[in-house]
């Protein structure tokens, strides 16, 4: 597709990968509508980037429906939905509480499911569209302390494959991106701050570039999955 024709809903769009993606797509001519849970962060991104947006918690069905209604009102249509909102909890299996496991599942799986469902309903009517799910290399291989997070990303990968099988006949491209470690506020939120000056690790800009590249392919084809690694992280 031509990025200048893109009308994008981007969840988790106020910081990190989401912010950099909104920035790049806007610069390339797309109409971008973001959401996030923090009103302050959403308004800051809207002001800085010249985009549209609203507050929404993707784990709540009412918020997801309102997100699509507002985006349609503001943009007059939608042809790209990027499922980027996500949280992480990392702990040993025996120390992982049911509450924490459920919280991760509510956002990373149920939230993505509800966003995908609303996108699919609209795209099937239009007989075209693009869904990009931002998963992780944690959707490909488990690791110690990753029970909740890996389970959620493996589930997202399964949903991606299911949606792809269902929606291809409607000319809907369903794609998944699997970033390895990216320097973003995600790690600050889980109490594992990164060295933000480390330029050997992936930045949000690399994932934004990947998203733009996948969307830019002519609609006759699409890349199903893209895994992004840092070349030589220190």
From TrEMBL:
What Pfam families does the record point to?
adh_short
The UniProt family comment states: Belongs to the short-chain dehydrogenases/reductases (SDR) family.
Q: What is this protein called?
A: Short-chain alcohol dehydrogenase
Q: Which GO terms describe its molecular function?
A: oxidoreductase activity
Keyword Oxidoreductase in record: yes
Q: Check the record and name the InterPro entries matching this protein.
A: NAD(P)-bd_dom_sf (IPR036291), Sc_DH/Rdtase_CS (IPR020904), SDR_fam (IPR002347)
Keywords in alphabetical order: Oxidoreductase
Top-level division of the source organism's lineage: Bacteria
Q: Does Hydrolase appear among the keywords?
A: no
